[in-house]
């Protein structure tokens, strides 16, 4: 009996040890203890996400076979490869359609050249930015002679200031000549009104270097003042003429628009419902809206507007591809902007996309891709 009891106890111990070992094994393989890799979207390979996309060359454009290419497309495919994401593109015509699709849940993500703005940040989440740029200005390349630059120069504040200064000085000189000459020269006598009119008329003629004949001051103080006025008016008018000529020459050679500060005085175009249009509204620059950037460029080439404002890399690429002989993009850029991927609020993709995106844009591959599409290093 004792031997049976001993065997029974030994068997019980073996069973207990086996159960404990199985429990440890189960604990190690419990699905609640997932690895960081399994916590990524690649743990659900069956779900295919939808990506809202639009034409925004060189960041996203369609090839002849219907496939997509571009800087943003290459970036997304690189990120999707890192995360083992299955996806398909859904094309929409405008950025606002991309944002609306993300908000409604139609898209799991949207990307191409979507600018991060405060209003959009309220509606969607954005990943880390992958490209920093600014607004650019496209203008006609071959500037034809026009009355608009002349009118702009002649109505500028500086021009009016110069004219007003000459008029005031001429009036002061005329009054002084009248005071010196009214009792000694019949040309400036005959009452206050007649004398002042004659002296101011002489002052104007002297300033323009026209011949006055025998009509002029005869007293010593009057002639000294007249000499000073004639010499001073020569210098003043020469400087004034040189300034106006310089303005008109530069305007004709470089165009009416040379930077952001010139936009308020010309006809400006922008793409409707874009971040560019919002910026122009905030700076109170009047502008004509177009449904697409191509329509705006066509209007610029046709002379219907004087400048088109849009994201500089997109402007540069389109002008270089299709309008190189008629339009140009100015070197200046303003209103810094950042492109990012738009996601629904609280999207579970955001963290993993951020990590994969940063890893990608910090690589040499990204530098080569930017250089390939934009020529930037």
TrEMBL record:
Q: What cellular-component terms does GO give this entry?
A: membrane
Q: Which PROSITE patterns match?
A: PROKAR_LIPOPROTEIN
Question: TM spans, by residue?
Answer: 158-180, 192-212, 224-248
Record bears the keyword Kinase: no
Its localization reads:
Membrane
UniProt-listed InterPro entries: Ionotropic_Glu_rcpt, Iontro_rcpt_C, Solute-binding_3/MltF_N
Q: Give the residues annotated as coiled coil.
A: none
Q: Which Pfam family would be a valid example here? A: Lig_chan
Protein name, as recorded:
Transporter substrate-binding domain-containing protein
Organism for this UniProt entry: Mesorhizobium ciceri
């Amino acid at each position: 009996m004792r031997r049976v009891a001993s065997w029974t106890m030994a068997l019980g111990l073996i069973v207990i040890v086996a159960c404990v070992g199985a429990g440890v094994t189960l604990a190690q393989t419990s699905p609640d203890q997932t690895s960081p890799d399994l916590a990524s979207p690649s743990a659900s390979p069956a779900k295919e996400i939808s990506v809202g996309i639009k034409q925004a060359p060189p960041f996203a454009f369609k090839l002849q076979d219907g496939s997509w290419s571009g800087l943003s497309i290459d970036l997304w495919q690189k990120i999707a490869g890192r995360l083992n994401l299955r996806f398909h593109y859904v094309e929409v015509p405008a950025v606002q359609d991309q944002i609306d699709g993300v908000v409604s849940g139609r898209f799991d993500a949207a990307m191409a050249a979507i600018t991060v703005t405060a209003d959009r940040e309220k509606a969607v989440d954005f990943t880390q930015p992958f490209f920093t740029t600014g607004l650019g200005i496209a203008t006609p390349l071959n500037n034809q002679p026009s009355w608009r630059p002349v009118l702009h120069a002649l109505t500028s504040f500086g021009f009016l200031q110069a004219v007003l200064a000459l008029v005031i000085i001429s009036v002061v000189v005329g009054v002084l000549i009248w005071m010196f000459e009214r009792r000694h020269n019949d040309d400036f006598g005959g009452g206050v009104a007649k004398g002042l009119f004659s002296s101011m008329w002489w002052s104007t003629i002297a300033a323009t270097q026209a011949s006055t004949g025998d009509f002029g001051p005869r007293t010593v103080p009057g002639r000294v003042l007249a000499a000073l006025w004639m010499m001073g008016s020569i210098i003043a008018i020469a400087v004034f003429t040189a300034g106006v000529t310089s303005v008109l020459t530069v305007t004709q050679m470089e165009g009416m628009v040379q930077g952001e500060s010139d936009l308020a005085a010309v006809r400006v175009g922008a793409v409707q419902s874009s971040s560019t249009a919002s910026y122009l509204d905030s700076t109170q620059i009047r502008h004509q809206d177009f449904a697409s950037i191509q329509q705006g460029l066509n209007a610029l080439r046709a002379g219907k507007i004087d400048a088109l404002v849009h994201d500089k890399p997109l402007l540069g690429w389109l002008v270089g591809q299709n309008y190189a002989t008629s339009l140009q993009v100015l070197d200046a850029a303003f209103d810094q902007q950042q492109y990012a991927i738009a996601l629904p609020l609280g999207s579970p993709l955001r963290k993993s996309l951020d990590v994969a995106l940063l890893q990608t844009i910090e690589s040499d591959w990204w530098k080569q891709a930017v250089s390939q599409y934009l020529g930037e290093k």
